[in-house]
Amino acid sequence: MADAARTSRLTENKRRCRARQKEYVADLKRRLADTRAQGISATIQVQLAARKVAAENECLRQLLRLAGFDDDEIDLWAQQEGCGTKPDGTASGQIREGQGLRCDVCGWLQEIGRPREEIVRVG
Fold first, then answer.
1. Structure pTM?
2. Distances in whole angstroms, Cα of residue 47 to Cα of each of 21, 38, 41, 44, 54
3. Count of domains forming the chain
4. Which of 6, 38, 64, 88 has the fewest C-beta atoms under 10 angstroms from its C-beta?
């Protein structure tokens, strides 16, 4: 009788172990699917952000062209290392609301022979 109880207990333990394994594998598959979906979503968001930046850059280029800059001058500025930023990523020419302040752009304008004007942020 003890052998029958022991065999029954072992059989039940094996059944529970297989059920836990099956549940664990199913959970891993769900997590993998969720992670893939998040990766796809992130990729789409990055692509949308890149398109937005490209569109904004084109608008800014058009604005600079209207202000009298040619594509060579715009490209020259855009190709500078840092392109108007400090090593820590912050803007090198700070523009404070209501105050005129010369910035790196003004220095660059002077270097290429454009009139140097104060930049005032309109709030």
1. 0.47
2. 39, 14, 10, 5, 10
3. 2
4. 88
